Amino acid sequence: MTAQPTDIATYNFAYLDEQTKRMIRRAILKGIAIPGYQVPFASREMPMPYGWGTGGVQVTASIIGPDDVLKVIDQGADDTTNAVSIRAFFKKVANVAVTTETAKATIIQTRHRIPEHPLSAGQVLVYQVPIPEPLRFLEPRETETRKMHALEEYGLIHVKLYEDIAKHGRIATTYAYPVKVEGRYVMDPSPTPKFDNPKMHRSPALQLFGAGREKRIYALPPFTDVVSLDFEDHPFEVQTFDQPCALCAAENVYLDEVILDDHGGHMFVCSDTDHCEKRREQGHRGHLAPEIPLALEKTEPAQ
Amino acid sequence: MDIVTQAIEGGFADPVFDAQTVFRAVMDAMARPGKLQPLPVFTRPPTPLSATAGAIALALCDNDTPLWLDPALQASATVKSWLGFHTGAPLANTPADAHFALIATPAEMMALDGFSQGTQDYPDRSTTLILEVSDLVSGAPLLLEGPGIEKTATIAPAQMPRHFVEQWKQNNQRFPRGVDIILATSEAIACLPRTTRIKTMEA
Amino acid sequence: MYVAVKGGEAAIRNAHKLLADRRRGDRSVPTLRLDQIVEQLALGADRVMSEGSLYDRELAALAIVQARGDMIEAIFLVRAYRTTLPRFGYTRAIDTGTMLVERRVSATYKDLPGGQLLGPTFDYTHRLLDPELAAGGEVAEPEQRAGEAEAMPRVSAILAREGLIESDGDMPEDHVPGDITREPLAFPMARDIRLQALSRGDEGFLLALGYSTQRGYARNHPFVGEVRIGEVELALDVPELPFAVPLGSIRVTECQMVNQFKGSAKAPPQFTRGYGLVFGQSERKAMAMALCDRALRASELGEDVVAAAQDEEFVISHSDNVQATGFVEHLKLPHYVDFQAELDLVRRMRAEHDARENAGKAEEKREAAE
Ligand SMILES: [Zn+2]
Predict the structure, then answer these.
(1) Which of A44, A100, A118, B123 is the most exposed place for a label (fewest CB within 10 A)?
(2) pLDDT at C2
């Protein structure tokens, strides 16, 4: 016997009600008008937990339309479980086309990475942000950090970075590395590795940041100056890898370390799975690439 | 048509998707200042409210957003009840209380600094101005630069507010406080967020 | 050769199938009906309604079943549903003075108008497990009140007549009550906003904080002026109508804490108030909320802020269990990109450290040899 579901609870298109979408849309417009400033918004509970991308999901749900093609990545990969889950959510509630191909997506929701393939005008990159306040770990109080932003008083964060140099000989921040936007607001780029920071600078794409639990939205319009904080004698540097991707031989990309056995065997592969697959399709091969050619379904149209 | 019918008709045919389309056009315009975003006709508001300005109001305003109307719009009871019926937005007592302002005759509008500028702590608490202009090509050309613009952009909106270039410079100087402007013609929109600078055109 | 793991979608699907199986359990045991939960696990449903901020017993019951009895998960389900509901209006403030009271106790007076009314309480039950309940024995009908209930003025009103208790937190004439589900929180916050946040705050968290004030972390000398549980009427003003439209009634628990106060630069010696109000029947939560409310009024009353319970940003930022559980549990999501970055840094710093050590040892050896 199959029980008939009752109409005890029903949900609106794209999950959010229209009033909520309007509220988020207004916050997005303010964010774009004041690049790097965190706009408070009345974040809603979402059907996934806070901390699991609710900010990004609310932003995406508020901007997405029937003609959009959505890509969702977590750690650069389309096949990580949370990315799969969020993609399935939008397929279900908004019935949009989804893709794993960076170049084909109109909206890319991401956690922790910026795709390797350069973004283009018209694309929107939506970041899931856990802690939007770049000063939070230096000053836990919102009342204080708000004052610091208002007065453009960023001495504290420079002191923190400089203490790193004094103690460790280098700036010991490797991800969520703070940036300054258009010479005004210090902004948290979300926990992307600092490797990705230069990609934010004057990107042709619109970048939107959603922090659901902390109730903040912020934005970088295209072609906006985004400069990683540094010092004259200790300029900002990105991570470098000693070897290319073991699967596609890519260099100058961000690599994940994959443990192969329990005797210390490991290899480095692209964290951006789409980038890696694309390169292998084009015939690039790393020293551990499998023989079998790839044949993956990449785009699913709306139903 | 009586006032009640006029107030009720002419809203979005498809509230969900029309609102999304209008918002995306506004978002893209705000993200790329000076770039024209074409917008088909989605609403049929009573005059002097234009279809484009009406569509923007329906997409963005509701009972949480006090709305200020310029005298030309204020004078029309039909416009007020149309906006009231379709958005539920309360009318702001003063321009400084408004989240949005609808301006039918920008050439006669009050100074930009009369609207809410936001505060240094909360610069987002400022008024967004929706200006009805006849076109974006026949007025004095404005050479624009700033975030969202790769090098420069040019628009030439007609019937802009008096001393606009000077007023806008002051708006820039208030950053991060300041107003943002949405320019609405009958078929397109363009935006001037507070970060956009107008370069003086050398003769 | 290496083939990356794929098939996240199938894995998720299968995991959820297994979850559904475990939720159902042994198929020979009858499925729980929602009315059974509404009737027999009523206080569980009350907590879900209260912290889920949605007064709907049936949905709360559904959430409890769906969550397999995990209360925070059930609260989360209800919140994620309520947030999608359009807002039609705001009712008039409820008047707990006109409550149809089922329980009302005061610790500050032996007897008082309306009397002490124990109602359906666990108090004075001996906590002995009852095998008869397990056997599903018959339950006797309760006693009924004979005649009309006596009016029950609130204890705070009785104290106020003597002028010994502060007035009830007057708001300016034009004050529009806030709505934490509609506006972003900003600190410092007005008391109406704070009370809303406390009312949906995690029972355990508020209980611990309230308890901490009793143990000396910002002690505030509380007395339970009154706890009352019962039904209150809801009414909605509709612009077109000259009268308020009755919407029915809801069950709430209210706690008025009366706190002795020696006076400060800002306020004279008097009794002060701490207030708790929650959906359904939950004295523990209402009392804990009242203790926290009083503690959080420290700045307003000119007291030093010395303990966690008095710290508004600390309390309100961490009281919501839906937020807290999400962020704590998000740590199990993959973080390998960031971990890689840290791994690289630690390896480099370790190599430099070892090189320095080795150089130091070599230097020592050379010196020793000389
Ligand atoms: Zn690769």
Answers:
(1) A118
(2) 47
Coil, strand or helix: which one is C91?
strand
| Tens digits of residue pLDDT in A41-96 | 999 989 999 999 999 999 999 999 999 999 999 999 998 899 999 999 999 899 99
Please report, for residues A197, A228, C76, C164, the alpha-carbon distance to residue A177 in angstroms, rounded to integers and kept in the order given: 8, 7, 32, 56
- What is the C-alpha to C-alpha distance for residues A76 and A91, in angstroms, rounded to an integer? 20
Distance CA C145, CA A238 (A): 77
Which residues of A are known catalytic residues?
Answer: 36, 245, 248, 270, 276
Which chains contact A through at least 3 pairs of Cβ atoms less than 8 Å apart? B, C
Does any CB of chain A come closer than 8 Å to the CB of residue C98?
Answer: no
Residue A270 has pLDDT above 60, yes or no: yes
What mean pLDDT is predicted for residues C236-252? 91
The CATH code of the domain that includes B21 is: 3.40.50.11310
Torsion from C-alpha of C336, C339, C343, C344, nearest 10 degrees = 80
Compute the average pLDDT of residues A213-224.
Answer: 97
Nearest residue of chain A to residue C15 (CA atoms): A81
Q: Is A169 on the interface with C (CB under 8 A)?
A: yes
A9 touches C: beta carbon within 8 Å:
yes
Residue B200, in any domain of the structure = no
Q: Which residues surround ligand 1, an ion (CB under 5 A)?
A: A 245, 247-248, 250, 270, 276
In a domain, B162, yes or no: yes
**SS3 state at B101:** strand
Residue span of the structural domain in which B103 resides: 3-195
Contacts of B23 (CB under 8 A, 6+ apart): A21, A25, A62, A63, B59, B60
Calculate mean pLDDT across residues C10-32.
Answer: 95
Q: How many domains does chain B have?
A: 1
Mean pLDDT rounded to a whole number for chain C: 91
Q: Does residue B203 form part of some domain? A: no
Which residue is listed with tokens 């993609």?
A87
DSSP letters of C237-306? Answer: E-TT-SSEEEEEEEEEEEEEEEEEE---SSS-SEEEEEEEEEESS-HHHHHHHHHHHHHHTTTTTT----
Tokens at C23, concatenated: 């939720």
In percent, the amount of chain C with pLDDT more than 70 equals 98
Q: pLDDT band for position C1 (50/70/90)?
A: very low
Which is it for strands B128-132 and B37-38: parallel, antiparallel or unpaired? unpaired
Rounded Cα distance between B179 and B95, Å, is 12
Report yes or no on whether pTM surpasses 0.80.
yes
Among C10, C333, C73, residue whose Cα is nearest residue A52: C333
| Helix intervals (H) in chain B | 3-8, 15-31, 51-60, 71-74, 77-87, 164-173
| Cα A274 to ligand 1 centroid, rounded to whole Å | 9
The reported pLDDT for the residue numbered C166 is 87
Q: Token match 């319009």: residue?
A: A221
Own/partner long-range contacts of C238-244 (Cβ < 8 Å, ≥24 apart)? C238/C89, C244/C92
Q: What is the pLDDT of residues B92-149, one digit of tens each?
A: 999 999 999 999 999 999 999 999 999 999 999 999 999 999 999 999 999 999 999 9
B188 in any annotated domain: yes
Whether the ipTM is more than 0.90: the answer is yes
Burial class (CB in 10 A: 0-12, 13-18, 19+), C262: exposed
Is A25 in Cβ contact with B60 (below 8 Å)?
yes
CA gap A222, B151 in Å, rounded? 11
